[in-house]
Amino acid sequence: xxxxxxxxxxxxxxxxxxxxxxxxxxxxxxxxxxxxxxxxxxxxxxxxxxxxxxxxxxxxxxxxxxxxxxxxxxxxxxxxxxxxxxxxxxxxxxxxxxxxxxxxxxxxxxxxxxxxxxxxxxxxxxxxxxxxxxxxxxxxxxxxxxxxxxxxxxxxxxxxxxxxxxxxxxxxxxxxxxxxxxxxxxxxxxxxxxxxxxxxxxxxxxxxxxxxxxxxxxxxxxxxxxxxxxxxxxxxxxxxxxxxxxxxxxxxxxxxxxxxxxxxxxxxxxxxxxxxxxxxxxxxxxxxxxxxxxxxxxxxxxxxxxxxxxxxxxxxxxxxxxxxxxxxxxxxxxxxxxxxxxxxxxxxxxxxxxxxxxxxxxx
Length: 363
Hints:
Layout: H1 6-20, H2 31-61, H3 66-91, H4 93-109, H5 112-145, H6 167-186, H7 188-213, H8 218-265, H9 270-289, H10 291-315, E1 326-329, E2 338-341, E3 346-347
Antiparallel strand pairs: 1-2, 2-3
């Protein structure tokens, strides 16, 4: 079993994101590095737009041939996801960089127990994510090499309104399409990054639940309140960033899988089926890449709620541990902590003798 640490995971995600121009730029980077990144992003966007235009023209040009239209539509929707990834990651670059920096900062200072929980989530997903990534890479390889061993002229089924017989022009178009196909394959790592943004708060909730079981002082309780509010803020920030990306993935990959599956049930050559089998299988797995970590985050919230409920059921009988007779109730649905008295009645009135509310970390 191959070993993937959290540090190596960041390296892999950044390497793939740098190639596809979807990894957020560090705000502390030099102006020259930011300029080079913007030029590379413009180059990637230009190539994707040109191939996408060619595929759209092919759908119109071969509109009476259902088989060709479905084949081209599958490639078009898969490439459309790359187009939208480039746009969304560019627009949300600063926000993504902040979240990734927060994760890296936590990983760097995590103790042994916290690192073990984080590593547990990496080990949980690494096999499935690796198989999914290999499926996309296999698809890129098959699309790139099939024209060399078949009657197909170019990797993509786009319609080009001019002759491609000159060898130099043919090679330029071939390399251009292979570049777009490789970019489309590696854009799966954008969704791996989103999965990381979901699994990180899930791991922190697991860690916080363990801390809550060992609270033995008022100061530790306030520390748990602050940490819980920080997790809430992280989840809210993540939600604001990835909502559009999640909707995009469901629409584009769902369409690509449906159109690609049509090639498998239709009477197509072995070369065509060798292209679309890994594409359809990895596309189906793609839809589960984010759903699995999101479901784990939901389960972590439920487990933490149980720990929280048990804690506050027991804490009313330990008044000597909390002499102020006032505790902060951790409410995962609100960004601020409310107050609950010893008899369980909630109050919002501030008493000068009571400790102040713990501020939200963003304030």
